[in-house]
From TrEMBL:
Reactions this protein catalyses: beta-D-fructose 6-phosphate + ATP = beta-D-fructose 1,6-bisphosphate + ADP + H(+)
Role, per record: Catalyzes the phosphorylation of D-fructose 6-phosphate to fructose 1,6-bisphosphate by ATP, the first committing step of glycolysis.
Residue sites binding ADP per the record: 21-25, 155, 186-188, 212, 214-216
Assembly with partners or alone: Homotetramer.
Protein name: ATP-dependent 6-phosphofructokinase
Stretches assigned to the Phosphofructokinase domain: 3-279
Positions annotated to bind ATP: 11, 72-73, 102-105
Keyword field contains ATP-binding: yes
EC numbers: 2.7.1.11
Length: 323
C-alpha cells in the first residue's frame, strides 16, 4: 500500500490511542501516507478523513479514550453505505485499512473486504477480552485494574458496616472482567454468563457464613450473567435473607476510561506496529493477536466466529480460596 487509513470502532478502550500512535508512526517510518478516519465507519461514510503526521499522535500514549473518536455506524451495515465508504477511500487513494475495535467492528471489516479489494487488518481493542486468537485485548488490563481498585474501596466500607456488597462489572456477554477482578479482590462468589448461576447455592453459602460471622461478603456479578445483573441479584438476596444488610454497586463506564496500564500500552504498541507490517507484507484480512507472547495472525473470519476458551478451573480456585 501507499496510503493507509486507521480508525477506532465500537466501544472505546484504554490503550486505543497508543495503538493509533504505533500505526501512524510505523506507517510513516515505511514512507506511507497515513489517514485518520474519525468516528469509526461513520467517518468513512461521511468522508471525515484527515491526513496524520508524527505530531498528530504526540502526547497521547498515556491517554484513555480515542483521539479519532468512535461510533457504532448503522449505515455501514448496508451495501449502499459501504459503497459510499469505499468511494471516499478511493478519493483519498487509501489502499489499506487498520481497524481497532471488537468483534462487531471486525464483522464490518470482513464484509467490506469481501466486497471491495482493500486489505483490512484488525487490532483487538475491547475491555471485554471476548476475542479468540489473542491472549490480550487492548483495554482489558486497565479496565480490570480499575474494577479491582474500586472493589477494594467497596470492601473497606463493606467491612466497616458488616454489609454484603454486590458489585456489577461490565463485559457484555463475557465474564472475564468479573472473573479476574473477583479473584483479585477475594470475592466469595463470581457470577458470569459462561456458567449457569445457582442462586440456592449462593444463599446457602451466605447463610453458612453468617453463622461463622464472616467479616466481608463480596459478590461480583458480570452484567451479562443469566441472573440479570447486580440489581436482580440484590433483589433475590434481600428476598431470601431479609435480615442481611445488602447494597448493590454498578461500576459502569468508569471501567472504560482512564490512563492505560503499562501492559495495555505495550500490547497496543506491538499490535499497531505489526498491523502495518502485515499490510507491508501483503497480508489480507487478519487480526493481529498475541499468543504466548508471540504475534499471532488470525483470519478476520475466525476472529469474528470463535470465542476464547474459558478456563473452568478458575471457578474452582474461587470456591477454595473464598471458603
Ligand atoms: O464492549 C464494551 C462495553 O463497555 C461492554 O462491556 C458494555 O456492555 C458495553 O460496551 C456498553 O456499551 P455502551 O457504552 O454503548 O453503553
Amino acid at each position: 500500500p501507499t496510503k493507509i487509513g486507521v480508525l477506532t470502532s465500537g466501544g472505546d478502550s484504554p490503550g486505543m490511542n497508543a495503538a493509533i500512535r504505533a500505526v501512524v508512526r510505523t506507517g510513516l517510518h515505511y514512507g506511507l501516507e497515513v489517514f485518520g478516519i474519525h468516528r469509526g465507519y461513520a467517518g468513512m461514510v461521511e468522508d471525515d478523513i484527515e491526513p496524520m503526521n508524527s505530531r498528530s499522535v504526540a502526547n497521547i500514549i498515556q491517554r484513555g479514550g480515542t483521539i479519532l473518536k468512535t461510533a457504532r455506524c448503522k449505515e455501514f451495515m448496508t451495501p449502499e453505505g459501504r459503497k459510499i465508504a469505499y468511494d471516499n477511500l478511493r478519493k483519498h487513494g487509501i489502499d489499506g485499512l487498520v481497524i481497532i475495535g471488537g468483534d462487531g467492528s471486525f464483522r464490518g471489516a470482513q464484509i467490506f473486504s469481501n466486497e471491495y479489494d482493500i486489505p483490512c487488518i484488525g487490532i483487538p481493542g475491547t475491555i471485554d477480552k471476548d476475542m479468540a486468537g489473542t491472549d490480550f485485548t487492548i483495554g482489558f488490563d486497565t479496565a480490570v485494574n480499575t474494577a479491582v481498585r474500586a472493589i477494594d474501596k467497596i470492601r473497606d466500607t463493606a467491612d466497616a458496616h458488616d454489609r454484603l456488597f454486590i458489585v456489577e462489572v461490565m463485559g457484555r456477554d463475557a465474564g472475564y472482567i468479573a472473573l479476574h477482578s473477583g479473584i483479585a479482590t477475594g470475592a466469595e462468589h463470581i457470577l458470569i454468563p459462561e456458567t449457569k448461576t445457582n442462586v440456592e447455592e449462593i444463599i446457602a453459602g451466605l447463610t453458612e457464613k453468617e453463622k461463622r460471622r464472616k467479616l466481608v461478603n463480596l459478590i461480583v456479578v458480570a452484567e451479562g450473567d443469566d441472573t440479570g445483573g447486580g440489581d436482580e441479584v440484590g433483589k433475590m438476596v434481600k428476598e431470601r435473607l431479609p435480615n442481611a444488610d445488602v447494597r448493590v454497586c454498578i461500576l459502569g463506564h468508569i471501567q472504560r476510561g482512564g490512563s492505560p496500564t503499562c501492559l495495555d500500552r505495550l500490547i497496543a504498541s506491538r499490535m499497531g506496529y505489526h498491523a502495518v507490517e502485515c499490510l507491508m507484507e501483503g497480508k489480507h484480512n487478519v487480526m493481529v493477536g498475541i499468543v504466548n507472547n508471540r504475534m499471532h495472525y488470525l483470519p478476520l473470519d475466525n476472529a469474528v466466529k470463535a470465542k476464547e476458551r474459558f478456563n473452568k478451573e478458575w471457578l474452582r480456585i474461587v470456591k477454595i480460596l473464598a471458603s
